[in-house]
């Protein structure tokens, strides 16, 4: 049955309803022609809106201009206007055979068209459609007392302080931004080469470069706190460092604290705490005693049995766990016989580590009751869904942000399309549903 059937018989929409149905029908035959037909349907529907809404006046024949028009964007919202822009750009690429489209991309175009048509019907329709859950409702969830608009976070160290991504991402739509690691004193980071590309991933040894907590509190936090849910990632070289940071950050605008006890790239980057059960527990309880905020503990994969550390920090009071941090790796330049990275070794992240991360999330979810934020190589909604099925309540996207700064939004859109297609009402229905 067609999602667009609610407009099929309504006379007022005959100008664009057949185009919508054709676009959807073509999905089964060819993703490229589906994308082309979505563009046709979007164009027809935009023209219909201009002809119908007396508050809108067309100042151009160009459909891109009509979508970018201020009044149009005020009526439909910038987010939806951007989605229509995406459909038109994709449609043009398909028409000019510039590239081939995937099932996910075609589904995303159809989903955008569907949202547009639903909004049209809400604004101008005589009989509003039977409510299917809006994308926002599908993805809303909770994690240690925090209300999340989506279960998709940006992973620490890969998303700056979030504001750098504001042109590409609706920051409020993220579950939260785990901002760049903060330490008590400013850090310059490691010398020499800090990043190297690897097959399906990257090695980094940034070395926790950051301006220090004082500057974060005085300069950065006031700028970003109303723009996103801020999770502050902290690192130290002693239990006292973590406790002091947690206390200093117990302020308005910080939603939660993430303890980085797993940075493999500096001697005092917390890894010592992340690989020893007792040390992990003591740093967790010290942080918990020092703050009223939820404490998320970020686990290292560079251990023999991650579940032991997970259980230890849960017993010590962790409100949630995030896993995994990067895997220790290295690369050698065979011309110079020297290591590629200034630090010799670095942390491996990206697609290459996804199977390891997924396995660790699944194993950990069997033994703890606190929520897990899964991460490691997530590049698509499909990856995110795997982590949710394995038992993660939410996911974080890291390295993939470097290749596509708006990837978190694509993942959110594609995740809602998947939920709709499966007839699910909320993303939580996926959590831990792996059948073994
Ligand atoms: C360049 C870079 C910097 C990172 N910095 C931090 C950091 O400061 N604190 C932290 O907890 N994790 C840091 N990470 C680890 C990521 O947050 C994430 O746990 C890891 O990269 C796995 O996810 P991914 O494969 O999606 O990137 C960093 C990763 C990269 C690639």
Describe this entry's structure for a reader.
The strands form four sheets. Strands 3-4-7-8-9-10-15-16 form an eight-stranded parallel beta barrel, surrounded by seven helices. A four-stranded antiparallel sheet has the order 5-6-14-11, with no helix packed on it. The chain has a two-stranded antiparallel ribbon with strand order 1-2. The longest helix is centred in the first third of the chain and has 22 residues, at 31-52. It starts with a helix and ends in a 15-residue tail after the last helix. The protein has helices at residues 5-8, 14-26, 31-52, 63-68, 70-76, 78-95, 103-124, 135-139, 213-224, 239-248, 271-274, 277-290, 306-315, 354-367, 381-390, 400-403, 407-421, and strands spanning 141-143, 146-148, 152-154, 176-182, 195-198, 201-204, 230-234, 256-260, 295-298, 320-323, 327-330, 332-333, 338-339, 345-349, 372-375, 394-397. 44% of the residues lie in helices and 14% in strands. The protein is of the alpha/beta class and 436 residues long. The protein has two domains: 5-132, Four Helix Bundle (Hemerythrin (Met), subunit A) (Up-down Bundle); 138-430, Aldolase class I (TIM Barrel), CATH 3.20.20.70. Helix 2 packs antiparallel against helix 3 (31-52) and helix 15 packs across helix 17 (407-421). Helix 10 (239-248) links the parallel strand 7 and strand 8 (256-260). It is elongated and about 70 Å long. Bound molecules: flavin mononucleotide.
């Amino acid at each position: 049955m067609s999602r667009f059937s609610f407009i099929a018989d309504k006379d007022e929409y005959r100008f664009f309803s057949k185009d919508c149905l054709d676009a959807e029908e073509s999905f089964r035959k060819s993703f490229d022609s589906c994308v082309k037909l979505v563009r046709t349907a979007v164009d027809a529907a935009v023209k219909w809106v201009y002809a119908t809404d007396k508050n809108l006046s067309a100042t151009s024949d160009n459909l891109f201009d009509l979508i970018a028009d201020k009044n149009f964007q005020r009526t439909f919202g910038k987010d939806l206007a951007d989605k229509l822009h995406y459909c038109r750009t994709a449609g043009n690429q398909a028409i000019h055979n510039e590239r081939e489209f995937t099932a996910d991309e075609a589904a995303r175009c159809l989903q955008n068209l569907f949202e547009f048509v639903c909004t049209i019907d809400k604004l101008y329709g005589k009989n509003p459609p039977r409510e299917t859950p809006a994308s926002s409702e599908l993805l809303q969830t909770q994690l240690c007392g925090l209300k999340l608009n989506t279960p998709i976070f940006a992973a620490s160290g890969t998303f700056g302080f979030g504001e750098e991504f504001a042109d590409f991402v609706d920051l409020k739509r993220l579950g939260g931004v785990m901002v760049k690691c903060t330490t008590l004193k400013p850090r310059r980071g490691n010398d020499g080469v800090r990043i190297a590309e690897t097959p399906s991933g990257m090695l980094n040894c940034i070395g926790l470069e950051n301006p220090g907590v004082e500057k974060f509190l005085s300069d950065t936090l006031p700028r970003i706190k109303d723009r996103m849910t801020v999770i502050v990632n902290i690192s130290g070289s002693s239990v006292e460092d973590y406790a002091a940071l947690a206390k200093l950050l117990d302020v308005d605008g910080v939603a939660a604290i993430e303890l980085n006890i797993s940075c493999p790239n500096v001697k005092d980057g917390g890894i010592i705490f992340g690989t020893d059960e007792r040390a992990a527990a003591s740093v967790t309880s010290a942080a918990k005693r020092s703050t009223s905020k939820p404490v998320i503990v970020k686990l290292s994969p560079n251990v023999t049995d991650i579940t032991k550390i997970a259980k230890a920090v849960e017993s010590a009071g962790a409100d949630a766990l995030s896993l995994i941090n990067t895997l220790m790796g290295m690369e050698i330049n065979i011309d110079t016989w020297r290591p590629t990275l200034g630090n010799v070794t670095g942390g491996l992240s990206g697609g290459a580590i996804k199977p390891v991360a997924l396995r660790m999330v699944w194993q950990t979810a069997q033994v703890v009751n606190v929520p897990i934020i899964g991460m490691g190589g997530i590049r698509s909604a499909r990856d995110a869904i795997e982590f949710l099925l394995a038992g993660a309540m939410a996911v974080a996207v890291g390295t993939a942000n470097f290749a596509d700064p708006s990837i978190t939004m694509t993942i959110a859109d594609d995740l809602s399309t998947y939920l709709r297609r499966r007839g699910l009402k909320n993303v939580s229905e996926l959590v831990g549903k792996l059948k073994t």
